[in-house]
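Fold it.
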Amino acid sequence: MSEREQRIRIAVVDDHEMFRAGVIATLQPYFDVVGQAADVEGSVAMIAQTKPDVVLLDVHVPGGENGGGAEILTKSRAYSPDTVFLALSVSDSPQDVGSVIRAGAQGYVTKTISGDDLVSSIKQVHEGYAVFSPKLAGFVLSAFQNGPSANGAFGGPIHDDELDRLSNREQEVMRLIARGYTYKEVASELFISIKTVETHMSSVLRKLQLSNRSELTRWAADRRIV
């Protein structure tokens, strides 16, 4: 474990004390756990004080106006704009997934995740990647695609001129990456090398003027093209 990885500063938000303690015990060998909280108000105050690199955020926590992880995320932006949020929840419903992703979470994993995979997911979101539990990929897209009619947050028309910038292969790679596939999974799905996937991904980001996988996921979901 490198020093750089150990310096990633983590905070854990969950209203179940035993679960929170277990997560912290799992993460402490790998990261610097700088804070924990169990409700909306305490979480916002803790994040403002500690300014962690990554917050593991439960979707349903008590307090606040709406009592949820999305409210914590929204309110914390003003105090710690560089903090990245990874939702960690027992819920796998499209409504819950959509609420925190729209609020700006970098990823969403369920509490069935293994300790090793959780450590890996934290490192990935810290590096700018969007991370979702494999079975949630469809839910994420469903939440983006079906939610706009209710709240108007997304749902603009497909911009064919933007898609036309991409080759057919680049569009295939873009759609799989936006669904939460890893480079290795994309390579296996399309029968190409991981290096080729990386090359196509770089081209996609450049042509669409996006910075990372998270922006691409939101770009694709916004346009309902995945």
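The CA atoms of residues 210 and 216 lie 7 Å apart.
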